[in-house]
Amino acid sequence: MAGHSKWAQIKHKKAVVDAKRGKLFSKLAKEISVAAKLGGGDPSMNPRLRTAIEKAKEANMPQDNIKRAIQKGTGELPGMAYEEAVYEGYGPGGVALLIEVLTDNKNRTVSEIRHLLSKHGGSLGEAGCVSWIFEKKGLILVDKNTIDEDTLMDIALEAGAEDLKNDPGEENYEIITTADEFQSVKDALTARGVPIAMAEITMLPKSQVSLEGDSAEKMLRLMEV
Prior knowledge:
The chain is of the alpha+beta class. Helices cover 48% and strands 20% of the residues.
């Protein structure tokens, strides 16, 4: 029975890992499809698609899956039509939330988001209520163990980066760029052999707040959904 129990545990763990991988691949495929739909299927001419493909490869997503996702986006293959949607609201403690999603049904999605926010002590707001607090920026993370700060700053700023942050409690340096300069800075780092832990164009807050106690716990639970 002990052997059977151990095998059951292994199967359960594998099922959990497979489910997480499947969820990740689905998310990556949606982003690839939307990027291809908006900017075409050629990654050399479509920076957003190029970044999405790089993320998929880093996650060991099969090449066939990537190809199908591109073809669904360009219309070469039939598939569910996803579109981008942005929702604004407030989380626990009144923290501003800007929620970007890919969805095939906006009505269902807005209902689900409203329910989740309400369940975790937040609320869905009107368009424009918090978007002014955020800016579209390029964000590149570099492991601190791979390069010293001065060298990285020289490379990043020379390539057109806006700022480099070195927070003592974080494992990575944060390189901030404009959305337009993101790809050129990323390419410059790669050309100099700097290993990139993560790179994306995202919405960054102009200011940050600290949450404590119950509000912090609720926010963590909301982020894990």
